[in-house]
Amino acid sequence: MAEVQAVKELDTVRLISHLLERRCSKQMSHIWNIGINLALRISDLLSVKFSDINNGRLILKEGKTGKRAEIKLNAKTMILINDIQLSHPNHIFLFQSYRNNKSLYVPPKPLTRRAVSQAFELIGEELNIRLGTHSMRKTRGYHLYKKTKDITRVMKMLRHSSEGVTLRYIGLTQDVIDRDFVELEL
User: Which SUPFAM superfamilies does the entry link to (predicted)?
Assistant: First the structure.
């Protein structure tokens, strides 16, 4: 699997959302927009249930690390979640698969990681960028770092334990090194 990257241009972030809705579905666009705002791993994002959201907060246990994530939801995310809930009042999962809606005997399931990956790869190919499900998390981290220059805040948001890992993760290591060589003339 090729390593995916953060989307560094905000216009491209918006274009990806638009293309996902046009080429794939509104649900894929919602995944992109909510995923960028929550900075969760795709497995955790897809497992979110409406019952995990209370008083403007999402509380869940991360599958990979077992760490508790408590995320205050911003206005855009709340609007999107409310839109999904109004459109699908009987759904249990935020991103529930529509495939089993017709069967009364099959328990509800979230959308699969594979389906999301395929949609993102399709748009990535169209835009000639390495886009994948992890791009949402990396994009959030990159833009928080760009805004604050505070790697500790980014580490806490992503629940990482090392600055080096976080810098590599959001794709800044080579950018920072290149800029240092160009800007520092002795």
Answer: DNA breaking-rejoining enzymes
